[in-house]
Amino acid sequence: MARFPDNNVTYQDIAEALNATRVTVTRLLQHLQEEGTVLRCKRRIILRLPNKLIENYSSGLY
Predict the structure, then answer these.
(1) Contact of 33 with 41, CB cutoff 8 Å
(2) Residue 52 carries which DSSP code?
(3) Given CA atoms 28, 33, 37, 40 in this order, what sign does their dihedral have?
């Protein structure tokens, strides 16, 4: 798992950690924002975990 030394993580940093392109990360984050899974406020990305999302994926976390 990638570790970032500070809070100033770029889309390029995320892409490299996921072995993806920056464009893919940008599109994915836009999609997640549109569906309400993430919020973008200023230069922050906030992951929202609605109850339905937690219920759907909780069994896969263990």
Answers:
(1) no
(2) H
(3) positive
| DSSP type of residue 30 | H
The SS3 call for residue 41 is: strand
Element (H, E) at 56: helix 51-57
Q: What is the pTM of this model?
A: 0.65
* Tokens matching residue 60: 């896969």
One pLDDT digit (tens) per residue for the chain, 62 residues? 556 555 688 889 999 999 999 999 999 999 988 988 888 888 788 888 766 666 666 665 54
